[in-house]
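Dear colleague,

Thank you for sharing your sequence with our group. We've completed the structure prediction you requested, and as agreed, I am returning the results in plain text so they can be pasted directly into your records. Please verify that the sequence below matches your submission; if there's any discrepancy, let me know and we will rerun it promptly.
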Amino acid sequence: MALLYFSQRTGSLHFIKDRFWGIFGGKKEFYDPELEKLRQELREIEHFRAEFNIQANTIEETKKFRRWVRLHSLPIRLVVLAKKHIRYNNFEDIKIEYGSHLKHQIITLIGLITITALSVLSAYGSNSKYWLAYFSDGNIVSKGFYLASDNFKLTLTGRHIGKEDCKNTELILKLPEAKNFSSENIVTLCSVFTSDTTKNTQTSELKTQKISLAVISVIFMAFSLFQIRGFQINSAANAIRSRLSKSQI
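Please find the predicted structure tokens below.
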């Protein structure tokens, strides 16, 4: 993976060839000064691409890039970060896209907040002792509840209902969160504390639920990192745009 990364970044594998060439006894330098100068320039360009991820093809282009950065007092970190917004088709006239970077930043920030919230909820769910289950009405899933080994909840934020509470199902039915449940539903839920089959099913389903939510949490966190990176890139592009505008006044 690392080899593919640097190959894509530098546009060549000369640095790998040099290593293998040296292992087999090949000499690194040319005796001819002109050829040696050409070899060094090639390695300089390769180093420049690897360092800044900018596809310059000649030493002169690297110098033009350096002059552009100095002319506008641009932090090299921002230039490298905002690479995809900068056009290097002509190193004589380097341009940056003047799109709505602020709009992109706002959209990215909203996406980041949403995905981060979902990843936190998924992580919380993967550590929960409650199994999310449902009562079915024919083929239509309708009434959801949360089941643990020693109690259950009719809603995520509802009160815990245990064995002692089950001695009086009428009181349970008077709870605000019980309005969608029938007395038969409550009796069924209370019976799970004495059913070995239900307990075994619960253990299996809870394990599956935790694994699923843990995977979802990791995916959401990966998207969060992607969104953070996008926000940083757009911020860098916006900062460069501002500096270029000021330097042209």
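Summary note from our side: The chain has a mean pLDDT of 76.

Kind regards,
the structure core
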